[in-house]
Write a structure and sequence with these properties.
33% of the residues lie in helices and 27% in strands. The protein is α+β, with helices and mostly antiparallel strands and 321 residues long. Helix 9 packs across helix 10 (293-303).
Amino acid sequence: MTDLTHLDADGRARMVDVGDKAITARTATATGRLETRADVIELVRGDGLPKADVLATARIAGIQGAKRTSELIPLCHPIAVTSVKVDFVLTETTIEITATAKTTGQTGVEMEALTAVAIAGLTLHDMVKAVDPAATLTDVRLDAKTGGKRGHWTRDGVIAPPTPRPGAAIVVVASTQGAAGTREDTTGPRIAAWLTGRGYEVETIVTPDAAIATTLADAVSASPAVIITTGGTGMSPTDQTPEATAALLDRELPGVAEAIRARGLPVTPKAALSRGLAGTANGTVIVNLPGSPGGVKDGIAVLDELLDHLVAQIAGGGAHE
């Protein structure tokens, strides 16, 4: 029983002393599922339930739940949660819930991510129970965590801190219409062609805006040297790319993001509205570009002079200037 850190030598519950642990950037992603009927899902899509704003209410509840985890679970430490992201994907008969929590500290945020999923799921149940009291919240689980002495963990097991694949790059296009095949994307191919010309082996993924957090986390887990996103950086309610990126970054590169915005300002003041981020996640460079051809052109122009040097620095082979 002493192998369980929350038990002392006599089997009594205790709060673990984390005072000597290293302060590191830590993230955790958890998932869950609300199972219901197809007609209920359509009511959620159309905002047709007696309790409106179902997903928005559940998202806020999940975030609040994560922030109050130490009050709900007796042996959890109060921690400074720096980011909580709750996303939903609607299928024919389910609402898939994904929560990612982030902190910089001496203990992890696994319970915060799990609590966010559980509270969001319970709120969904409360919102739909008038039409489907048999709805089921199920499969709440931790999917991945980073930080701390165990490094990067996934449900497949503990893995060593990933070594980025030097020649690999992933382009992620955040476009609900593009993913549905109702709108042709021109920005992703342009970025892919530019990366290919620089010698990268490029994979392009088109994802709905609502799924960007999961898609981006999966892309990071593949350990490419570079991930460039396009789309979802504005102020539309569906624009979630910067939030999904922030949940994964361990180091930010604010100068790169500002340089991309500055590049577009002489052409259009709207360049200032992009909320795109840049930084690194487990050694992978991530840069958000707008979803417009002009924004992508500006981003490529900035990265053309920086990307190779940045990737080399991260790999330990570039000069520090």
